[in-house]
Design a protein that fits this description.
CATH topology: Porin
Distance between the termini: 30 Å
CATH class: Mainly Beta
Shape: globular
Order of helices and strands: HHHEEEEEHEEEEEEEEEEE
Strand content: over 45%
Strand order of the largest sheet: 1-2-3-4-5-6-7-8-9-10-11-12-13-14-15-16
Structural class: mainly beta
Helix content: under 10%
CATH architecture: Beta Barrel
Radius of gyration: 21 Å
CATH superfamily: Porin
Number of strands: 16
Number of helices: 4
């Protein structure tokens, strides 16, 4: 299944509701009677206001009224009048010349249930559940409780499942099907990467435009609990510290460090990652760049002869919208690069993506990606699609 996923590409979206990490699902638009354009341009890509809305616990303070909750007569009980729920459905028709495969019908590729909102003052939740992903019941990915504005400061706490890379770039709100490859890399048998994990995340914003993030995670991804009910199979925790700074009005620069250990059997792997990134924006253009350096001292968990592995990589993405957030069409280019001592991890690709908004919540797309280097060798992928959210 993992191998099949690597060779199947996006080409024809039959239906697609909102992407998960947008943290703004169609139920929120219905609740506040606002256009998707308020938070997205184009959807699911978040605007600054969408980021602010998500960081505020999915609440627009000046629009909150008693009609959103039920009056039970108990001041200690808060109940939403309507549970915010949305559904996402995706199907594909793909062309890919890797491994002698060309055309593939993959529908439904995923069906998911999404929900999120404020359940008490400054306490919110968000989750989505896969009814089906690639023909299997996949279960939960994002699922967390958020404590907003603790101690009447700009301190937020997330507890549950989330993507480690969320403070860097959110994979699930990208416009392309081609992923940010370096975030997904798992070296040897080590299970830590920059995608989903369980833990706690603290974020704090300073008046200077500086954002701080600190994460403590299991470092094992979303493995199920073991026979004694524990999700973490060793005594170690992994840590990430992230700092980003707004420079002028259109440039954000950031850096992060990640360190941790994992034990399998009698062997231990110690790893660290460091990276830098920046985002430059104008009304019509956005440029996102990420670089990551990683070191593992025993990712194959050999007891007698540990083998060190060096890995590095990154991506560069540029988005052009000719009429800023009023644009009916846009185009995106994405370059991916991963180099590693572990040869099967080496990857490089370049893709072009074009989209046109048929409606504010519906866009038609075409995307072509040439993969220069991968486990499957060089190959080309082409996709057509339509994406809708409601």
């Amino acid at each position: 299944m993992v191998k099949k996923y690597k060779i199947v590409t996006l080409s024809f979206f039959l239906l697609a509701f909102l992407t998960s990490q947008a943290l703004a699902i169609p139920a929120f638009a219905r609740r506040y009677s606002m256009s998707c354009k308020v938070c997205h341009a184009p959807f699911p890509k978040l605007k600054a206001y969408g980021e602010e809305f998500a960081g505020n616990g999915f609440v627009i303070k000046d629009k909150e009224t008693p009609r959103y909750t039920i009056d039970t007569g108990d001041g200690l009980l808060s109940l939403l009048r309507e549970l915010p729920v949305a559904i996402r459905f995706e199907g594909y028709f793909s062309f890919n010349n890797a491994d002698n495969k060309s055309l593939d019908f993959s529908s439904p590729f995923l069906i998911k249930l999404l929900s999120g909102g404020e359940i008490a003052k400054n306490i919110s939740y968000y989750f989505y559940f896969f009814f089906s992903e690639r023909g299997e019941v996949a279960g939960l990915e994002d699922a967390f409780i958020m404590l907003n504005n603790l101690f009447k400061t700009d301190l937020d706490v997330y507890l549950g499942q989330f993507q480690v890379s969320d403070p860097l770039f959110k994979r699930e709100v990208r416009l392309t099907y081609e992923d940010y490859r370096i975030y997904k890399v798992r070296v040897g048998q080590a299970r830590a990467n920059l995608t989903y994990d369980r833990g706690i995340m603290l974020t704090y914003g300073l008046p200077t435009g500086t954002d701080l993030t600190f994460e403590v995670v299991n470092g094992l991804g979303l493995l199920p609990a073991d026979r004694v009910g524990s999700f973490d199979t060793d005594k170690y925790k992994n840590f990430m510290l992230r700092i980003s700074q707004d420079v002028l009005n259109n440039l954000r620069v950031g850096a992060f460090g990640y360190t941790g250990k994992e034990k399998q059997g009698e062997a231990i792997n110690t790893l660290w990652m460091m990276g830098a990134d920046f985002t430059w924006t104008s009304p019509k253009l956005e440029l996102n760049v990420q670089y990551v350096e990683r070191r593992d001292d025993n990712p194959f968990f050999w007891v007698l002869t540990p083998e060190k592995v060096q890995t590095r990589g990154g991506f560069a993405e540029i988005i052009y919208m000719p009429e800023a957030d009023d644009s009916r069409w846009y185009t995106t280019a994405l370059f991916n690069w991963v180099d590693s001592d572990q040869t099967e991890l080496r990857y490089s690709s370049f893709g072009l993506h074009f989209g046109y908004l048929l409606r504010r919540n519906m866009r038609a797309t075409v995307e072509g990606t040439y993969v220069f280097k991968s486990e499957q060798g060089a190959h080309f992928r082409l996709g057509l699609g339509i994406i809708t959210a409601f």
